[in-house]
Amino acid sequence: MMAWAEKEYGAALKVVKIEADANKATLEKYKVYGLPCFILFKDGQEVPESHSEGAMSKKALQDYLAKFGIKAAVTA
């Protein structure tokens, strides 16, 4: 689904995935307790209230991104 989101949202969204086991300090820093975890960043800073843990359907992911003003790229 992340490949779909990256394509669907184009320049409005950059998807970054990290390996949880190899990055325990990062998990602690961002208080990640469940996977998958979604956190939005803007200008290098975590977007307040964007931390979401647990699987999402495509519709739920679309709603989550829309809540933070991220819109799908316009396709011709």
From TrEMBL:
GO terms for molecular function: protein-disulfide reductase activity. Pfam families: Thioredoxin. InterPro entries: Thioredoxin-like_sf, Thioredoxin_domain. GO terms for cellular component: cytoplasm. Transmembrane segments: none annotated. Signal peptide: none annotated. It comes from the Eukaryota. Residues 5-66 form the Thioredoxin domain. This is Thioredoxin domain-containing protein.
